[in-house]
Amino acid sequence: MKPDVNRPFACNWSAVGECAIVRVAGPVEVSALSTFADELRHVITTKLPRLVVDLRRVTAMEAAGLDVLADAHQLAIENGGWLRASGAAQWLADLIRATHSTRPLDHYPTLADALPSYRPAAVGATYHR
């Protein structure tokens, strides 16, 4: 089934044990960046600083979306946690490479792979297959 490219941006979170899952859907465009950043900041600072950002339903992401993820990653570390991205397939690695981003972002192929009960947190920027 193809993703609905006309779907509006949506972002919500839920807790799984000691970890938050932030599910993102639709295009992460300039108009959605502040909402995206605010939701990540809210979850990290008021709920759980350990989070997985599930990107499997993202239909497009502006390069500035990487900055939102990297800033949230840093905020999570400052609050004693971590941030992992999951489900973006190859497009996230391609976007990181195309933008020459050097900011750390751990990415896992699936949500299950990213959850801490399955795998310990990695240090630095890694892509897990």
From TrEMBL:
Pfam families: STAS_2. Gene3D superfamilies: STAS domain (3.30.750.24). It comes from the Bacteria. InterPro entries: MlaB-like_STAS (IPR058548), STAS_dom (IPR002645), STAS_dom_sf (IPR036513). SUPFAM superfamilies: SpoIIaa-like (SSF52091). Residues 21-118 form the STAS domain. This is STAS domain-containing protein. It comes from Kribbella jiaozuonensis. The lineage of its organism: Bacteria, Bacillati, Actinomycetota, Actinomycetes, Propionibacteriales.
